[in-house]
Amino acid sequence: MIFKQLFDQKSSTYTYLIASSKGREALIIDPVLENVSDYIILLKELDLRLVKVIDTHIHADHVTGASKLKDITKCSTIMGDHTPADAVEIKVKDDEFINLENLKIKAMYTPGHTSDSYSFLMDNYLFSGDTLLINGTGRTDFQNGDSKDAYNSIFNKLLKLPDETFLYPAHDYKGEKVSTIGKEKKQNPRLQVSSVDEYVELMNNLKLKKPTEIDFNVAKNINLGA
Fold first, then answer.
1. pLDDT tier at 212, thresholds 50, 70, 90
2. Domains of the chain
3. Which residues contact 65 (CB under 8 A, 6 or more apart)?
4. Are strands 2-8 and 13-19 parallel, antiparallel or unpaired?
5. Which of 11, 70, 134, 179 is 20 to 30 Å from 171 at the Cα level?
6. Furthest-apart CA pair in the chain: how many Å?
7. 104: helix, coil or strand?
8. Distance between CA 8 and CA 16 in Å, rounded?
9. Residues 6+ away with beta carbon under 8 Å from 9
10. Per-residue pLDDT tens for 47-64?
């Protein structure tokens, strides 16, 4: 398998490229518009053909490169079935599998950060979007976010995965690249709560600043960045 983790400095976004092997089909998760040319170069260097691109949710802090990648490569665009983006070609349901040759990627509906948030599980690789972060969790104060939904998604879905499952989030702001479910259970400060009410109280008092370009980015991302 080919697996590449790419990083956007401006938005601290992680983008993931996955392929079964050289000369085969590839998939990209959470592409950033400004980096599309870099993805194309990488695909050529690795002798890969991009066939699918996934956005874990409608992002607020950057514009997706999904539409531009589709224009260049004719790949299919994929999001979860709760997305408001009508431009998406394939809308996957909870527990549905996305096939990439001999690889299978399971869609998991994990709302809370936004109402359309999905995570994607490939073997023991979890691509959690903004639902579960390394030493953190996604904020719940915009785009129909809901702290109770987030608690349920994290504690009753993602943390039920095996402890050795690798965690690859859509963002990190401190240089961390990967964690595990077991490590997050023990060390993530947002997860050291005893009840859903305690988690809701914690999330309601974060007092985070609104992303500076949220309105523009969300409007663009509803159309997959077009």
1. confident
2. 2-217 (3.60.15.10)
3. 31, 32, 33, 34, 35, 36, 39, 53, 225
4. antiparallel
5. 70
6. 50
7. strand
8. 11
9. none
10. 999 999 999 999 999 999
Residue-wise pLDDT tens digits, 132-180: 999 999 999 999 999 999 999 999 999 999 999 999 999 999 999 999 9
Q: Looking at the DSSP assignment, which residues form a beta bridge with residue 32?
A: 64
Rounded CA-CA distance 213/6 in Å is 22
CA distance 82 to 57: 9
Helices and strands in the chain, H and E counts: 6, 14
Copy the structure tokens of residue 11.
């938005």
Q: Shortest CA distance to 39 belongs to which of 75, 84, 1, 78?
A: 75
Over the stretch 85-110, which tens digit does the pLDDT of each residue have? 999 999 999 999 999 998 999 999 99
Q: What is the pLDDT of residue 89?
A: 97
Q: Which residue has the tokens 């956005």?
A: 55
List the structure tokens of 213: 């370009």
Instruction: Please provide residue 61's backbone torsions phi and psi, each rounded to the nearest 5 degrees.
Output: -110, 0
Read off the pTM.
0.96
> How far apart, in whole angstroms, are the C-alpha atoms of residue 207 and residue 185?
24
How many residues appear in the chain?
226
Give the angle subtended at the CA of 72 by the CAs of 68 and 76, to the nearest 5°. 75
Residue in 202, 203, 160 with CA at minimum distance from that of residue 184: 160
39: phi then psi, degrees, rounded to nearest 5:
-65, -40
> What's the pLDDT tens digit per position in 104-130?
999 999 999 999 999 999 999 999 999
Among positive and negative, which fits the CA dihedral 32, 34, 36, 39?
negative
